[in-house]
Specification:
The chain has helices spanning 12-26, 51-57, 75-86, 103-113, 126-131, 157-166, 179-189, 206-213, 226-243, 288-312, 338-345, and strands at residues 3-8, 30-36, 40-45, 61-67, 92-97, 118-120, 140-144, 147-154, 197-199, 218-223, 249-254, 269-274, 313-328, 331-334, 346-348, 351-352, 360-361, 364-366, 373-382. The protein contains eleven helices and 19 strands. α1 crosses α7 (179-189). The structure holds S-adenosylmethionine (SAM). S-adenosylmethionine binds next to α8.
């Protein structure tokens, strides 16, 4: 049974939930085994996985590698044999992550003793590996304990940063979702390609543009701000031109999410994926009273929006929704509205965490060090 190693992004729990959401739909025979140091995830699969397709689909995975079967119990010997056979002529170029720090040098020496010309490339980042074409050469190796994994695919990070920094419609004030996180949210929704997806707080349209690059083509975006809708339009047009997309249906409206049923047919939307208004940006010197007042306002906004979501979503329709969590003076302020959302007529669908005795994780938390705001990611189903 092939064993795969997924190298996770900087939010490993979220990456794991995303992998699980995608694999459970597309490859039900896969089985997530365990985490390794919170950086890697082992996955067993009865069938071979198409790593290239998967890496292009996932937002939170940096590398996918597969384990190769070893002949000897000696790690160094196994690597030398592999590299020698893998490329029978010419210069061997390889990189190695994990294992003893002297291992690359020892391997180089042994290969030289076999009359091979060798170059070790330090895997500083995935760009180095891609630049030296080590994925094609099958010589970017990762060692976990005594097991050896060969990299099959690496995240297309230049495309992500092109979409992040190259798009024309930018809103620095409201903040924009990182495209990788938008993609993760689309995957966590488990929406199928024919579904109608709505982002009712679309801002500059990151969720919509990521969904378009993933092959979703029935999209609706709305926002209370006219500028946001203009930015989304620009960004979608930019994407269509740059990615040569065709046969896309999308509708954009200026609309208040708390009155959105005035614009949309009842029971017409399959999936809502959104990062709503998260309040005024915080600088860290706000008073507790100020943050609590803002929290109350956001709570009302979200609950009013959920009442509308209930009207326009189809039965069993999904909403993947971000709720902010604020940090100040070592305190944490959360917006506790799960029960109230459930009372409106939703069921919380937690994200499974394979590596915890607590089976379900709810919510997922996206937090970068030193930020005053974290994003909780929730998934609800209309019940
Ligand atoms: C955090 S931004 C969303 C950013 C978006 N995810 C992106 O990546 O560009 C929140 C958006 O909510 C919009 N907004 C605020 N109140 C709203 C309301 N009542 N209805 C609809 N949109 C609203 C703001 O105009 C802003 O564009």
């Amino acid at each position: 049974m092939p064993c795969y190693l997924f190298q996770l992004g900087h939010q490993p729990q979220i990456s794991t939930a995303e992998i699980q959401a995608v694999l459970s739909l597309e490859h039900p025979s896969t089985h997530i085994i365990e985490h390794q140091t919170n950086k890697y995830l082992f996955v067993d699969s009865k069938k071979e996985l198409n790593a290239e397709n998967l890496i292009n689909k996932l937002g939170g995975t940096i590398k996918i590698s597969s384990q190769f079967t070893v002949q000897s119990s000696e790690l160094k010997k196994n690597i030398v044999n592999y590299l020698n056979k893998n490329q029978s002529t010419g210069k061997i170029e390889f990189s190695l992550t994990g294992g003893d720090k002297n291992l690359p040098l020892t391997i180089k020496k042994e290969l030289k003793m076999l009359d091979r010309s060798v170059r070790y490339i330090e895997p500083k980042n995935t760009a180095t590996i891609l630049h030296n074409k080590l994925v094609e050469k099958k010589t970017d190796l990762t060692i976990i304990n005594k097991d050896i994994f060969v990299t099959l695919a690496i995240q297309p990070f230049t495309e992500f940063s092109e979409r992040d920094y190259g798009r024309p419609g930018i809103d620095d004030k409201s903040g924009m979702l990182p495209p990788k996180l938008a993609r993760i949210m689309v995957n966590l929704s488990q929406a199928t390609k024919d579904e109608i997806i709505l982002d009712p707080f679309c801002g500059s349209g990151t969720v919509l543009t990521e969904a378009l690059t993933m092959g979703y083509n029935n999209l609706i975006g709305s926002d209370i701000s006219e500028k946001a809708i203009q930015d989304t339009e620009k960004n979608i047009q930019w994407l269509i031109a740059n990615y040569h997309l065709s046969a896309i249906t999308y509708h954009l409206n200026v609309a208040d999410a708390t009155k959105i049923s005035a614009n949309l047919q009842p029971v017409s939307v399959d999936t809502i994926i959104t990062e709503p208004y998260l309040g005024n940006p915080l600088h860290g010197n706000e008073s507790k009273v100020y943050i609590q007042k803002q929290t109350e306002e956001l709570k009302n906004l979200y609950l009013n929006a959920f009442k509308e979501f209930h009207k326009i979503l189809k039965q069993n329709g999904t909403a993947v929704f971000i709720i902010p969590r604020f940090y100040f003076d070592k305190n944490e302020i959360i917006i506790d509205i799960k029960n109230e959302i459930e009372k409106i007529g939703f069921e919380n669908i937690p994200f499974a965490n394979p590596n915890s005795s607590i089976l379900n994780l709810q919510p997922l938390i996206y937090h970068r060090p030193n930020q005053h705001l974290a994003r909780e990611i929730w998934r609800f189903k209309k019940s």
